[in-house]
Amino acid sequence: MALMNFSLLLSSLTYILLETIRRLALQGTELAHVYVGTLRLKLIKIGVVILRNTRRIRFLLASGCPYQKLVFQVSAKLTPG
Fold first, then answer.
1. Which of 19, 20, 37, 24 is CA-nearest to residue 73?
2. What is the band of 3 on the pLDDT scale with cuts at 50, 70, 90?
């Protein structure tokens, strides 16, 4: 029973996170009014190589990624500073 409640909590938090990304970072884009599942497929479930050192984390996208510019725009809007 506790595992089901934790799973529901994680699902709810994921939904809230994607809705927040849509509201803050996707205004004026073609993904501003799509379903959460579509956001997940277009922005989250993409193949990247993650390089990490003490100062920064780098995400390397494939050159053929169809939403590469959009991913960069979203990350720039969500980056503090």
1. 24
2. low
